Amino acid sequence: MTILLSLLLAAAAQEVVPDVRVTGPGRPNSQTPATLVVEPAAMLIVSCDTDADGRTTRTELEACLRGNFDAIDTAHRGQIGYIDYGRWQTMWLGDQGALPSPFEVDRDGDNRVTTDELLAQFNKLFARFDKNGDKAVTRAEALTVRATAADARGPVGGRGKRGGANRPKPERVPGGRPGEGAPDEQP
């Protein structure tokens, strides 16, 4: 009896560890996800709405950009170098790599960005975002709807403007290019 009790206690003391199964991400669905995107420049433009009416005018944008530029141009020379422009991008656009780039803004190619060059570039952007032509940019106008087929690894091939519907879809290869190496496993 003592042996039987010892065996029962030993069996009860053993921990039951369930099997653990690790799987990869599921197959993407065939529905194309729609994504709302706000470009950094558009985000800056709508943030310049000083009278809080939900619309940014060119006058509000110009005053805002002059103030933002002066925050970096502490010597008040009306121009900054590319390194300082990178600081301006980080502070006001959210990232040093955000567009417009200093090469795009520096129209005379002197490796300096002036207040006038910045205003000229943002006037072009303002015109692009003012979709209804009412001389103001709203948050709705700042939004861009992008519909791109994607899965957990990013965008996937699809139809293009040149009749891509009949092209074979390139195979996905981890860390490689289509056609190189072994394709992903199919379920």
UniProtKB/TrEMBL annotation:
SUPFAM superfamilies: EF-hand. Residues 117-152 form the EF-hand domain. Residues 147-187 are annotated as: Disordered. It comes from the Bacteria. Signal peptide: none annotated. This is EF-hand domain-containing protein. GO terms for molecular function: calcium ion binding. It comes from Sphingomonas aerophila.
